[in-house]
Amino acid sequence: MPFIQITMIEGRTPEKKEKLIEELSLTVTRVLDAPLESVRVCINEVPSTHWGIAGKSMYRRHNEE
Length: 65
Known about the structure:
Layout: E1 3-9, H1 14-32, E2 40-46, E3 52-53, E4 56-57, H2 58-64
């Protein structure tokens, strides 16, 4: 059973996440010849204050621009 885990900064719409789940599942089905029913996707959303790049949180980087 393929299991895909995505970690991303929160803020995408439910529709965007639904499309991501669909596209990832279809890609895994095509590439691995796995039945669609066996594919699992988990989206972990992280607040921008908890995600850092180059010593600054994404929240801080976004608000300094």
